[in-house]
Amino acid sequence: MNSSAFLCARFFIGTGLLLLALAGCSDDGADFDVSQQIGPDPVLPEPTSELLPDMKVAEVVGWQDGKTPSVPDNLVIAAYAKDLANPRTVHTLPNGDVLVVQSREPSGKPIERPKDMIRGWVMSMAHGGGAGPEKESNLITLLRDTDRDGTVDERHDLLTGLHSPFGVAWHDGTLYVAAADAILAYPYQLGQAEITGEPRVLTPLPGGPINHHWTKDLALSPDGRYLYASVGSNSNVAERGLEAEKGRAAIWQVDWETGAARVFASGLRNPNGLIFHPETGVLWTVVNERDELGPDLVPDYMTSVQEGAFYGWPWSYFGAHVDERVHPPRPDMVEKAIPPDYALSSHVAALGLVFSNGSAL
After folding, report:
1. Are 146 and 153 a contacting pair, CB within 8 Å?
2. What percent helix, strand, coil does the chain show, rounded to 5?
């Protein structure tokens, strides 16, 4: 993101009139050193509250010829596939085939706040400004490099017409797909270039007409016994009431044989990037934290996930830092909240986590 480029949305609401003005605004957090929020003990400034907070919008530039994103030393990056429609997650199957999940958010979500209008406009810019017909999305594409030279030799759309898919996992002849409201199980043998069998619903997941954080990630436990699914909150800080948050802001444990499910850990506003550490076997996740407490709160983070643990949302963040906006207050829940392992700085919207040679990427 270009930290010097941002938009401030000012709304003027009169009798039956909504006027949207886009203007440059001063950046109140310009002097804050974001590196202070990277690590196990982040600096947490005092929260600020504005009716209409500044919105920093990253410029969508794509990959320029001859240029690539930066990667750590000893790693090389190159384009593996192009012409994808909203690629969200990538999953490598045991035989080396790569699945790319492409999806759009569920349709029909209501516009409840002026901020939602700005968000919709920003998303349309990210999708190319709405010029021309949209590419087909909500599908899973298989990429196959038969000679392992780094070039895709075969490309097949395994599944189409899905309901906003995100996470995938494969186990024992079955491909599991986390859609916006359920985990689906498809019969699938490694090496197949198509899926023709009908899926069964392994277990429903919280969805609904709003489904604020709709992306559901999946991970298979190292012993193959359970699937773990991430379910984000249905709001920023429970402003829709706690009834709308049942089973949400949590990571579920699901028996892949029976579909029996339970909440494994909670208080995680919008968890994604589920992965098991290859050496310890511990589940990890990255979490997108709450908004509208200022440009430097609250840091997104990555953390190991303890069974039965509570990580604070919505009543607190990073342990005992109380969010005064949440009513009724719950000091008993704040006392239970454990701090996450490692902050990534505020509003970075991390989505994935990879372990390589003992390091997290």
Report:
1. yes
2. 5, 30, 60
With a threshold of 0.70, does the pTM exceed it?
yes
Contacts of residue 120, defined as CB under 8 A and 6 or more positions apart, other chains included, come to: 111
Decide: 286 and 300 in contact? Cβ < 8 Å: yes
What pLDDT digit, counting tens, does each position of 161-172 carry?
Answer: 999 999 999 999
245-267: pLDDT as tens digits:
999 999 999 999 999 999 999 99
Give the residue extent of every domain in the chain: 66-79+104-137+205-360
Q: What does the alpha-carbon distance between residue 28 and residue 283 come to, in Å, rounded to a whole number? A: 37
Q: Identify the DSSP state of 348.
A: -
SS3 280: coil
Which residue's structure tokens are 């001859």? 66
What's the one-letter identity of residue 3?
S
Q: What are phi and psi of 64, to 5 degrees?
A: -85, 155
Q: What is the DSSP string of 281-305?
A: --EEEEE----SS-TT-SEEEEEE-
